[in-house]
Amino acid sequence: MLQAKIWNPRRELETSEPAIVLVHQWSMMGGKASLMHGIALELNKRGFYAVTFDMRGVGGSSGQKTINGCKEVRDVEAICDWAHTRLGRDLVLLGSSGGAPIAGSAIDLRPFIRAFVGVGYVCGSLASIIFHPHFAAVIATSKPRLF
């Protein structure tokens, strides 16, 4: 079970803009949903729905953290399905730090995921060892990406 929260905007935009799913930093280094609350609040001020959640093994979410984040991609999928059903909107994935490659891996797993934003996308030798399974999906997608 995953712990998640939908942040309803103070004022809704006139159009049905996508909701933003915020994927927190790498769990093994203390990443958790509460670190994304500031971004969620700013998105709300601008009229966007935001979704925060704790990946497996973090906060109120059950399961075991993984080193390379491959199982956490399933968490992103599950939250996207849940948010899409609840909100009836397309989604944009926004991943922070080690959450960015995990979010990027999910970009083409659902047709209602429209785009990907990687904030502080990890790179370097250690990141390439840990997160290499995720890079191919982000490179191969034809959907919009912002790093």
UniProtKB/TrEMBL annotation:
GO molecular function, one term: hydrolase activity
Annotated PANTHER family: AB HYDROLASE-1 DOMAIN-CONTAINING PROTEIN, ALPHA/BETA-HYDROLASES SUPERFAMILY PROTEIN
Domain of life: Eukaryota
All residue ranges annotated as the Xaa-Pro dipeptidyl-peptidase-like domain in the record: 2-84
InterPro entries: AB_hydrolase_fold (IPR029058), Xaa-Pro-like_dom (IPR000383)
Gene3D superfamilies: alpha/beta hydrolase
UniProt-recorded name of the protein: Xaa-Pro dipeptidyl-peptidase-like domain-containing protein
